């Protein structure tokens, strides 16, 4: 039986690479649902090629265009965010790949868990915002959450059945500004920030990588995925991105997962787990890996990493506040409305201003997200006071 896969965000960087994996294994996987936010042309092209059961466009204004373009095919066409939540519940779906970006992924991920679908989790913001609720739901509905993020997939691949982890070591490339001084960071542009040295990704995560918020989020994601305490999570800057992450056991043994930087591998592993399947992806050539280097992250120049650790320590709705403020500042940075370093200032202020809730409910997360966005947008427009 082919595994039926729903891809939330099929037009993005992870989504298109997931379709390459499906294309490489037509005997194993089938795209059952494809969804996009705005990119209707690409969604139409994908739907005509992969012939899914259903497609969803989140932006309802694009519904008619999508519907007409697919009218000669027996594909169900839906629009809107509610449809995203409903479509993942379809009975034949085995795996839901959450490849959409940001807080918007939270609700459909919760629907998919409630429907008992295996979650291939790319959308780390869901875990950052509401890891506790997601884990509780996954336990209740006995749904596995398989990591797609390369670092977490690496850790997942290193785990041993009877030996608890002592530490997880997340590697970080350090991004395009790894060697920049504070003075240089003051004037960096979005064009510079969008040039990641090792990975080609969507705009939001590329900015998060440049500011190291991505690594901060991955620290929080690791806590919820692997049940480790903050002091068991270490970040090591490894500019070559050959080691994707490591685990240390209580006897001091360290296991690492290595490979070329190619997201198709962790995507495919989440699809094939617990098996591995053959791939045609590039292989690691050790003769070309002359220097594998490691350094400590600098949380003075990259304050976002410190802010994310702070949010992790405080818990409650604090990671949700950091996530929402970050989504606002990244969107503003991409519109040249805020400086690179100004992003951390706004996030820090939002963390002080939005009311802290120790044990938030789902509704608390929804209101925290909305309130933080309002405050952060105000701080961007009026400047920090
Ligand atoms: P992207 O911007 O390239 O693609 C995002 C996708 O989500 C698009 O298909 C878009 O249509 C859809 N989308 C965006 N906003 C939406 C909304 N409000 N409602 C419905 N759909 C929406 O992003 P990406 O780089 O593919 O990243 C996707 C997720 O995977 C992010 O959470 C990111 O952190 C995570 N991730 C990405 C990579 C990578 O290599 N790109 C690696 C690790 C983790
Ligand atoms: Mg990652």
Topology at a glance:
Blueprint: E1 3-8, H1 13-24, E2 29-36, H2 40-50, E3 54-57, H3 63-69, E4 76-79, H4 81-87, E5 95-98, H5 106-114, E6 118-121, H6 124-140, E7 145-147, H7 150-158, E8 165-172, H8 182-186, H9 190-193, H10 203-211, H11 213-226, E9 233-237, E10 243-249, E11 254-258, H12 264-272, H13 303-314, H14 318-334, H15 340-353, H16 362-382
The protein binds nicotinamide-adenine-dinucleotide and magnesium ion (MG).
Residues 9-15, 36-39, 58, 99-101, 104, 122-125, 149, 199, 201-202, 204-205, 263 line the site of nicotinamide-adenine-dinucleotide.
Characterization of the model:
The chain has a seven-stranded parallel β-sheet, with helices on both faces. Strands 9-8-10-11 form a four-stranded mixed β-sheet, covered by helices on one side. The N and C termini lie far apart (60 Å). The mean pLDDT is 97. With 385 residues, the chain is α/β, with parallel strands linked by helices. The protein has 16 helices and eleven strands. Among the domains are: 3-147, Rossmann fold; 149-207 and 227-262 and 276-300, no CATH class. Strand 6 (118-121), helix 6 and strand 7 form a beta-alpha-beta unit. The protein has helices at 13-24, 40-50, 63-69, 81-87, 106-114, 124-140, 150-158, 182-186, 190-193, 203-211, 213-226, 264-272, 303-314, 318-334, 340-353, 362-382, and strands spanning 3-8, 29-36, 54-57, 76-79, 95-98, 118-121, 145-147, 165-172, 233-237, 243-249, 254-258. It binds nicotinamide-adenine-dinucleotide (NAD) and magnesium ion. Magnesium ion binds at residues 149-151, 218.
